[in-house]
Design brief:
A: about 500 residues, mainly alpha, 20 helices, B: mainly alpha
Chain lengths: ~500, ~675
């Protein structure tokens, strides 16, 4: 029940504000996002780590003829991601309070809709329910880009919709087939509950194509190279708050999909496709980084860096080790929080450079904005996985796991670690430092701007001091996710000394 | 208070100083920020001294105390505590770092008085000291990496302190990226060790290593070499050294603190700290010894021809660290650390004195423009002479004892080490030449315009403010000196700082004199008691030969410099013309920058540009995207002909439907 309410609140807040003007819509959404954050936070605290497993479960037969359940739960895997979603939604709403978007009622409605869909996808314990929420996520962004976007928004929308919809349709077909084929293989009524599917493995050859369909859908959404074609235009066109939500949490749904569904439900398929996915991960890291340090568009630095960071996450998952999966989950949360900061910073930079997001039109902003410089530096260093940030622990675990099971990939991925330093510092230097040539407004963060970044800065610092808070809750769940696939791929998922 | 409390306070004060300065920045006026910053480091130093006293009270075999605050990360076979290791080695480093830092903070109080970023400078400086202390106190690899990377970040911030200078931001990013490369080396080394020993805790790894690894085990050698990548990147050893000369873009106190006395010696500390591993990996030790030798010789040759005052000292730092790396890689840890300490004193002194000259030159750093400062700046001149004699290894200055201790120890080893022994003495000769070349060119000869101006009682101000590195015109808000400035010897704070260091540079040698005094050795004994070459009997004839040779070479070097630059001023140019090829090679710094640019920087930039221009535009937009998009466009055009906005209506319908579904469950649930 609590979880159903949690999903409903952002949507309801948006719906409630729909008929009203700016001020009321803002107030309702703020209250809604705060309530979401409080509930998600309470659940995270109340989750019994010692007990583990699925908790706060809801399970109702929903669409009887095809056996779809309205099944929700919190477990070690989605706990932090649900909290992350609530947090990012809250930050985005706060950021929007100070914007004057057209048709604010609708704008907030779509944001709430998106948050609800993401929460639903994270909480769903039924395969078709997950697919439903996964597809629902696209709709609000279709409107957010298409109606509130800048520049070539129509082209961007079309591209994004076609890319992600093709992935979604493949996944939908694969999910339906997985349920039906499991039922016929084991001679039982059709049932899409994830726990049920996990207990009844499909035969080897079916697993292959089902896994491929899921993988494609997730890789498009993340996005991973070479399926990132929609990213540049969509990122450029998206209004900044929508971008924070999109880049901060939607991409994590895809990564989470691998850990929650694709790998544990179709372990043979995952084991066989492992090398390909490791190559995709590595390509995303290296190519994404190379793009990030040659673009001069501040927003695209963030976007391309996301490709690289999600490459690391993918690498961790398909190392098929406990350390790698733990690191991947940790990086999902870290990247979500840091992205909120970076997107907000892009907004602040543009506000000072006469609306331009071109790094070449900035420079020396730090002269008049020391606090902003510190915030930016914290975000930049966290994003490049500076040791002392929680991102470093995530990256360390990923590299550790990858080293144990696929050493070459770990070594090559290290190039990406160095490149991250180049592109983040380049972005920082070209905007905040450098000669004062471009007649940029060098003003300090306003209170409003500060309000949008302070919560994220606090979370980044808190995680840096105590990353164990995240790690301890997810340990059992991540290991369970990759165990079968690891056995299939002849990988030892648990580091030898951990057993000692 | 307990030993542990003192050790944690060593870390707490600089951190508190950083935070306090950051928060109070808008309200701090005058020199308050400098006072807060200096006091924070002084308190850290005091706690370091107290910790040493407490540690000495313990019996020798239990002078190895681990203290942990909380579990930092424990999952997937990694167990990292927030723990520090308090032993003689870490506390020696604490004393050197905090002690020299206190003096340099004091010096900076006056040196940067007219800079707009005064508070920011002290916040950065305190942050650096905090990071460096984390590095030396860390009790496990994860925390070591944290400290290791944080000093890199602090160094970046301080090199780019005058961030409106392109030369400074470029130098900053270069230093940071090379150091990240080093971090990666340590991370991979840690992963290897973690895989083999199952721990990241120093003491556990050191205890496990002899059980897990045979001598020269492949994994262990690889791990040690990876750790060395980190050490070389931080300590500016070839081929990872190119950032150090550029780092001279930072204000002079930064050069003194980070790029001479503390951070750059972290690699030496790392190898000494990891000695139980390196002793099991002789191959890695050989690599370290050879890299140290190469660095010491290459840097010395560049030092002979460089004309920028600060860069001469920077190359000499590289060269001296080469000696230290050579020592600790050969298993002579106490000598290496002894030289680390004396070098911290005399090199910080030289940089401070150089700051005084740069003040008198109004920011100009080229030796070609200097001359004749001897009479007008007697204290600075005396500091240069003391620092220079110590650097050249002349008795009875501290550098004489520490450098000879290293070469003596290497000589005792025999075997292939004679290459290091001979190379070390060749380096010593070059050291004396370039050091006194610098001193004679700056202080002797005809007084330059600036010196004359000072003699007449006016501090020289340049008619226009220019970046000394590339000559671009600037406002007075950036670079040294700001709108008004001092020269060190006329400011009390700076004179005190230089005086204390001059005293230490002169006398610190008494701490370790073969067969006479063994303070260093006795203090460090608990850390290195198991090391192979610890406390080896010293051969008297080799000792006397080495000391004699060191003195003779030092005198010879000074005589050569005297002849070339004072007695016959034109002869240096003649030699340059005679050996034009070598001069070109040295003046172009052996073309390391060009080689790295060609082999690494350009290929990656090319990949990125190729990605942007070709792959993204042609392949992604043209091939992958255009197909489906045009298909959709054609089909939607067909549909649009009878109903516009279909897609939107469809999406709206889904939205509405979803709303109903959610509402249904809300009511039902």
């Amino acid at each position: 029940m609590t979880l159903s309410i949690l999903i409903a609140i952002p949507f309801a807040a948006g719906l409630l504000g729909l008929p009203f003007g700016g001020r009321q819509a803002k107030a309702v959404s703020l209250v809604g996002s705060l309530a979401t954050l409080i509930i998600a936070g309470t659940l995270a605290v109340r989750y019994d780590t010692a007990l583990g497993g699925a908790q706060f479960t809801v399970d109702k037969l929903w669409i009887e003829p095809i056996g779809v359940h309205w099944a929700l739960a919190i477990d070690g895997l989605n706990l932090a991601l649900v909290a992350l979603t609530a947090f990012v939604y809250f930050c985005v709403v706060v950021a929007c309070l100070f914007r004057d978007d057209e048709r604010p009622g609708q704008f907030f409605f779509h944001l709430g809709f998106a948050a609800s869909a993401v929460l639903g996808a994270f909480l769903a314990q039924d395969l078709l329910l997950f697919v439903l929420f996964f597809d629902l996520m696209l709709i609000p962004f279709y409107f957010l880009v298409g109606q509130w976007g800048d520049g070539e928004r129509i082209k961007a929308t079309t591209k994004m919709v076609i890319y992600t919809l093709s992935g979604s349709l493949l996944m939908f077909a694969a999910a339906a087939a997985a349920g039906a084929l499991t039922a016929s293989q084991y001679g039982m009524p059709v049932n899409f509950l994830i726990s049920n599917l996990q207990n009844h493995a499909l035969d080897h050859s079916t697993q292959h194509w089902v896994f491929v369909c899921f993988a494609l859908a997730f890789l498009v959404k993340m996005p991973a190279v070479p399926l990132h074609g929609w990213l540049r235009d969509a990122y450029r066109a998206m209004p900044l708050p929508a971008l924070a939500l999109f880049s901060g949490v939607l991409s994590k749904v895809a990564a989470y999909g691998f850990l929650k569904l694709a790998v544990p439900l179709f372990p043979d398929g995952a084991a066989d496709a492992r090398t390909v996915l490791l190559i995709v991960a590595l390509a995303s890291i290296l190519y994404g980084s190379a793009l990030a340090f040659t673009t001069s568009d501040a927003r695209l630095v963030v976007g391309y860096s996301s490709i690289a960071q999600l490459g690391f996450i993918l690498l961790g998952i398909f190392s098929l080790t406990e350390a790698g999966a733990q690191g991947a989950l940790m990086q999902m949360v870290n990247h979500g929080v840091v992205t909120v900061l970076l997107v907000a910073i892009v907004g602040m930079l543009a506000a000072r450079a006469k609306g331009s997001e071109d790094l070449g039109s900035m420079g020396a902003i730090a002269m008049g904005a020391p606090v902003m410089a510190v915030v930016f530096l914290i975000a930049a260093l966290a994003n490049l996985a500076m040791p002392a940030s929680a991102n470093f622990i995530g990256e360390f675990l990923i590299l550790r796991g990858t080293w144990d099971s696929a050493s070459v990939f770990a070594v090559l991925a290290c190039i990406g670690v160095v490149m991250a330093a180049v592109y983040m510092l380049r972005m920082y230097i070209r905007s905040m430092h450098g000669p004062d040539e471009n007649d940029v407004e060098k003003r300090e963060m306003s209170w409003r701007e500060a309000a949008t970044v302070v919560p994220a800065v606090i979370v980044v610092l808190a995680l840096a001091l105590y990353p164990q808070a995240l790690l301890s809750r997810s340990e059992g769940a991540t290991t369970a996710s990759i165990l079968d696939a690891a056995n299939g791929a002849m990988v030892n998922p648990i580091a030898p000394e951990a057993r000692k | 208070m307990s030993l542990q409390t003192h050790a944690w306070l060593v870390l707490a004060f600089p951190l508190a100083g950083t935070i306090l300065l950051g928060l109070l920045r808008p309200v701090l006026s005058g020199k308050k920020a400098g006072a807060i910053g200096t006091l924070a480091i002084l308190l850290a130093f005091a706690n370091g001294v107290a910790a040493v006293i407490k540690l000495q009270e313990l019996p020798s075999e239990s002078r190895e105390v681990v203290s942990s605050l909380w579990t930092y990360a424990n999952t997937g076979g990694l167990d990292a505590q927030l723990s520090i290791l308090i032993d003689p080695l870490s506390l020696l480093m604490v004393l050197i770092v905090a002690g020299v830092s206190t003096l340099i903070h004091l010096y900076s109080v006056a040196y940067l008085a007219s800079d707009e970023g005064y508070v920011r400078f002290f916040a950065y400086l305190n942050f650096f000291v905090f990071s460096m202390l984390v590095l030396v106190l860390a009790g496990n690899f994860v925390l070591l990496i944290v400290g290791w990377a944080l000093v890199g970040a602090a160094s970046y911030l301080l090199i780019s302190f005058w961030y409106r200078r392109n030369t400074a931001t470029k130098a900053g990013i270069k230093a940071f990226v090379i150091n990240v490369l080093g971090d990666v080396g340590i991370v991979l080394g840690t992963i290897l060790l973690l895989g083999a020993t199952g721990s990241v805790d120093f003491l556990t790894v050191f205890n496990e290593a002899p059980q897990v690894f045979n001598s020269n085990d492949g994994t262990l050698v690889a791990a040690c070499l990876l750790l060395m990548v980190g050490a070389f990147a931080k300590s500016a050893q070839v081929p990872f050294h190119t950032w150090l000369p550029d780092a001279m873009e930072g204000p002079t106190p930064v050069s003194a603190l980070i790029h001479a006395a503390t951070m750059v010696t972290a690699g030496v500390y790392l190898i000494a700290r990891m000695h139980p591993l390196f002793e099991l990996a002789p191959t890695a030790q050989v690599v370290g010894g050879i890299i140290g030798l190469l660095t010491l010789l290459i840097a010395a040759t560049i030092g002979l021809v460089v004309t920028d005052l600060k860069r001469v000292i920077a190359y000499s730092t590289m060269s001296q660290i080469g000696y230290m790396i050579m020592a600790v890689s050969s298993g002579i840890y106490v000598s290496g650390l002894f030289h680390l300490m004396t070098h911290a004193f005399f090199k910080a002194l030289l940089f401070m004195a150089a700051g005084s000259v740069i003040g008198a030159m109004a920011g100009e750093q080229s030796l070609n423009r200097m001359g004749g400062f001897r009479k007008v700046m007697p204290i600075t001149y005396a500091c240069f002479i003391i620092g220079g004699l110590a650097l050249s290894g002349m008795p009875p200055f501290s550098g004489f004892f520490s450098k000879d201790d290293i070469l003596l120890g290497i000589g005792e080893l025999g075997g292939w080490h004679w290459i290091l022994y001979v190379g070390g003495y060749i380096g010593a000769l070059m050291t004396a030449i370039y050091t006194f070349r610098m001193i004679f060119r700056a202080f002797h000869g005809d007084p330059c315009e600036e010196a004359k101006s000072l003699e007449a009682g006016r501090l020289y101000h340049a008619p226009e403010h220019r970046n000394p590195a590339d000559g671009t015109l600037e406002d007075t808000g950036v670079g040294f000196p700001g709108s008004k400035h001092h020269i060190a010897e006329r400011s009390v704070a700076m004179t005190i700082a230089m005086g204390v260091l001059a005293f230490l540079a002169t006398t610190a040698g008494v701490l370790q004199i073969p067969k006479i005094s063994h303070v260093m050795e006795n203090f460090l004994e608990p850390t290195f008691v198991g090391a192979k070459h610890f406390g080896v009997e010293i051969d008297t004839s080799l000792l006397l030969f080495g000391m004699g040779l060191g003195t003779v070479l030092g005198l010879l070097g000074i005589w050569i410099a005297w002849t070339l630059y004072v007695k016959r001023p034109g002869s240096a140019a003649a030699i340059e013309a005679r050996f034009a090829g070598a001069h070109k090679l040295f003046a172009n710094k052996w073309y390391f920058d060009e080689a790295i640019d060609f082999a690494i920087v350009r290929p990656f930039a090319a990949l990125g540009r190729f990605g942007q221009r070709t792959v993204e535009r042609v392949v992604v937009d043209g091939g992958i995207t255009a197909g489906p998009v045009s298909l959709a466009r054609v089909s939607s055009a067909a549909v649009r002909s009878w109903q516009s906005g279909l897609l939107r209506a469809y999406a709206a319908a889904i939205t509405f439907g979803a709303a109903l579904v959610l509402l249904y469950f809300l009511l039902q649930g």
